[in-house]
Amino acid sequence: MSKTFTVMIAMAFAVASVATPSIAMAGPYVGVGIGGTKTESTLKELNLVPQLAADIAVIGSDPNFSSTDVSLEFTVGWMFNQHFGVEIGYADFGTARDTYTLPESCNTFGCQSREWTAQMQTTGVQAFVVGSVPLGESVDAYLKLGAIAWDADYAGYEKNVAFFPGPPIGERNAAVNYSDSGTDLAAAMGFNLKTGTPFSVRAELTYYDIDTTDLVFIAQLMGIYTF
Predict the structure, then answer these.
(1) Which ranges of the chain does DSSP label H, i.e. alpha helix?
(2) Tens digit of each residue's pLDDT (9 = 90 or more) over 17-58
(3) C-alpha radius of gyration, the chain, whole number
(4) Model confidence, pTM
(5) Across residues 95-124, what is the average pLDDT?
């Protein structure tokens, strides 16, 4: 994901290289961003460990969980001057999903390959205080500190990867489905590339301290329109 953010910053600076110099923009603004979410946790933290002892013996009692997906964000804010502002928004983190190979089930008729899937689907409403420093006429660097009120749907389920003659074989793990919510710390850093018009482009990295995870962050490009 760090490589993704590096590419995004390079793209944003490419926009700045052809931009018309402008003064720092202040006032109300709206924005739409798209990027990538990185989620790291463990199945125990997510409460998605399969139930069967034979499966736990193979994948472990607390295997790592790691996933990336596409993120989408909508934001509105107000820069009171070139250094200070506030912002609220909505973030869709996409679906974090990881899979784990389980032991085969076999009988005299054949064998069945099995797989456990764990997933977490998260959205949230967030609010930030924004601090910005002009680096030049066309570039601002900024930091954001705030919180996110998040909602997440969790699921764990077993499926057959390959099936050979015969009916379903052996005992199966019961599916797990539940929801959770909370309010946790959020912080971001980025660059705002101005174009000499009300439009600007942000390259941004946001960290979220969401419960049940070890690491969640979004790297994105965001289009901003300042009124």
Answers:
(1) 2-17, 43-46, 53-59
(2) 443 344 446 899 999 999 999 999 999 999 999 999 999 999
(3) 22
(4) 0.83
(5) 90
Bridge-based pairing state of the strands 199-208 and 176-194:
antiparallel
| Tokens describing residue 166 | 């015969």
Lookup result for tokens 């899979």: 99
10: pLDDT strictly greater than 80: no
Q: Are strands 84-107 and 176-194 parallel, antiparallel or unpaired?
A: unpaired
Q: Domains plus CATH for the chain? A: 2-226 (2.40.160.20)
Neighbours of 54 (CB within 10 A): 12
Instruction: Give dist(CA 64, CA 176) in Å, integer.
Output: 18
Q: Is the dihedral of CA 187, 191, 195, 201 positive or negative?
A: negative
Q: And the tokens for 145? A: 């500190």
User: Residue 57 and residue 179: Cα distance in Å, rounded?
Assistant: 27
Tokens of 211: 């419960």
Backbone angles phi, psi at 17, to 5 degrees: -65, -25
With 0-12 / 13-18 / 19 or more C-beta atoms within 10 angstroms meaning exposed / middle / buried, residue 156 is: buried
